[in-house]
Amino acid sequence: MFVERTHHVDRIPPDLTAVPMQTYVYDLFRFSEGNEVLLARSYSIEPFDAHFLRREACSVHLGLTSKDTTTPLFAAAVSYLRGIGMLRVEWLNIEGEGYEPVPTSN
């Protein structure tokens, strides 16, 4: 598994000369194996939380389903996040009510 971590700061409005109304500071994690990719985000205000947002297959963005949480890539990505100190890991379930916790057994 290949892991890429990038740091982001989103400002609203994006004009650096204006006073920001909101600022979002977060890290994105891209976990990849072959053509399969999982994307997760962790906001700086919640440094021990991470949320899986989607998967990508051949550059196509796809929502996550319960089937995706059973893959070896998902298990390895969860293990990586927990290994760097993420205490709460969730995933965005497009079949359910939104974010759901990843069981600690994963």
List the helices and strands and how they pair.
Layout: E1 2-12, E2 22-33, E3 36-43, E4 49-57, E5 60-62, H1 72-83, E6 88-93, E7 98-101
Structure description:
A hairpin with a 2-residue loop joins strand 4 (49-57) and strand 5. Strands 1, 2, 3, 4, 5, 6 and 7 form a seven-stranded mixed β-sheet that branches. The chain has one helix at 72-83, and strands at residues 2-12, 22-33, 36-43, 49-57, 60-62, 88-93, 98-101. 19% of the residues are buried. It has one domain (2-101). It is globular and about 45 Å long. It contains one helix and seven strands; from the N terminus they run E-E-E-E-E-H-E-E. With 106 residues, the chain is mainly beta. It is 11% helix and 50% strand.
Report a brief summary of the structure.
The protein is mainly β and 106 residues long. It has one helix spanning 72-83; strands spanning 2-12, 22-33, 36-43, 49-57, 60-62, 88-93, 98-101.
Observed structural traits:
106 residues; mainly beta
Helix content: 10-25%
Number of strands: 7
**Low-pLDDT residue spans:** none
Summarize model confidence as the mean pLDDT: 91
Distance between the termini: 16 Å
Shape: globular
Radius of gyration: 15 Å
Order of helices and strands: EEEEEHEE
The number of helical segments is 1
Q: How many domains, as an integer?
A: 1
Q: What is the beta-strand fraction?
A: over 45%
Class by helix and strand content? Answer: mainly beta
The biggest beta sheet is recorded as: 7 strands, mixed
